[in-house]
Amino acid sequence: MKFPTTFSLQQIAAIISCDFVGDANFPVLGMNEIHVVENGDIVFVDHPKYYEKALHSKATVILINKKVDCPDGKALLISDDPFRDFNKLTTFFQPFVASCRSISNSAKIGKNTIIQPNVFIGNNVLIGDNCLIHANVSIYDNCIVGNNVTIHAGSVLGADAFYYKKRPEGFDKLISGGRVVLKDNVDIGALCTIDRGVTGDTTIGVGTKLDNQVHVGHDTVIGKKCLIASQTGIAGCVIIEDEVTLWGQVGTNSGITIGKNAVIMGQTGVTKSVAGGKSYFGTPVEESREKLKQLAYLKKIPEIIRNMDKK
Predict the structure, then answer these.
(1) Is 171:164 a contact under the CB 8 Å cutoff?
(2) Per-residue model confidence as pLDDT tens for the chain (311 residues)
(3) What is the C-alpha separation between 233 and 240, in angstroms, rounded?
């Protein structure tokens, strides 16, 4: 998430009422999670295990819960609760704005695009040309839909990330301020759900097709010309490269990469990153030929036991 204008370190510290280390006029351009941070961004860290990763990331401002040595060219925001204060910044820069009509006045809809009855289109949504949005679709604030896109009935673009911090009193939600971006020629089936990024974009690439009842988690990036079959669940922060096929009821762990031209067979649990150009099956995931050999061997176990008993 980039800020509308450059803020100083001192201004950011004032918003969240915390101390800072560095030049008061140090420029701050935006805020992001660790996997998408860029120069000028704030990143938050609240566990010693991840201090070094955050301090040496591309982020130039680290929102942290301990005074540490500040790397050259960077600045620190010292907070007793970075998770809470990251939420404060998201709320400040991307506040929730209630809608008062089904299609927001600030939404922009392209030429020859058809919007069926009972569609909700939120604030600042951009929809391209020659799209077809079927009944009862909900497109939350700030989403971007390219040209020649079809979204079937009941699908939801832009719901919040499933991202919580466990506290003694319950679960504290990380507030989502990102977007969903659909590129040109994407088809979204009925009853699909695509969560927005926490601070970045959940992106579906040119020409990709989703079947009915597919879920895509926050900050996931799906490449070009992918096929994703029904009842597949893709976790957050997944990278799916171009021309990947996921057959029905596939599930993935978060933070993994599925390589270009990979094929994931139905009901596979993708528990780790897998290389492109191969077919995979099973849970935990393995190359399909190897997994099928293992299953064939398992079928032979009763016969092996019977033969051993005869000896």
Answers:
(1) yes
(2) 999 999 999 999 999 999 999 999 999 999 999 989 999 999 999 999 999 999 999 999 999 999 999 999 999 999 999 999 999 999 999 999 999 999 999 999 999 999 999 999 999 999 999 999 999 999 999 999 999 999 999 999 999 999 999 999 999 999 999 999 999 999 999 999 999 999 999 999 999 999 999 999 999 999 999 999 999 999 999 999 999 999 999 999 999 999 999 999 999 999 999 999 999 999 989 998 888 888 888 888 888 778 777 76
(3) 13
If one looks up domain 108-293 in CATH, what number appears?
A: 2.160.10.10
Please say whether the beta carbons of 206 and 188 come within 8 A: no
Dmax over CA atoms of the chain, in Å, equals 85
Q: Domain 2-93: which CATH class? A: alpha beta
Residues 6+ apart with CB under 8 A from 287: 278, 279, 280, 281
Per-position DSSP letters for 46-109, written without gaps between them:
-SGGGHHHHHTSS-SEEEESS--PPPTT-EEEE-S-HHHHHHHHHHHHS-----SSSB-TT-EE
The active-site residue, picked from 134, 152, 215, 218, is 218
* Annotation says 35 is catalytic: no
Q: Angle between the 82-93 and 9-16 helix axes, to the nearest 10 degrees? A: 110
The residue ranges of every structural domain in the chain are 2-93, 108-293
- pTM, rounded to two decimals: 0.93
Question: Please, are residues 21 and 78 in contact by the beta-carbon 8 Å criterion?
Answer: yes
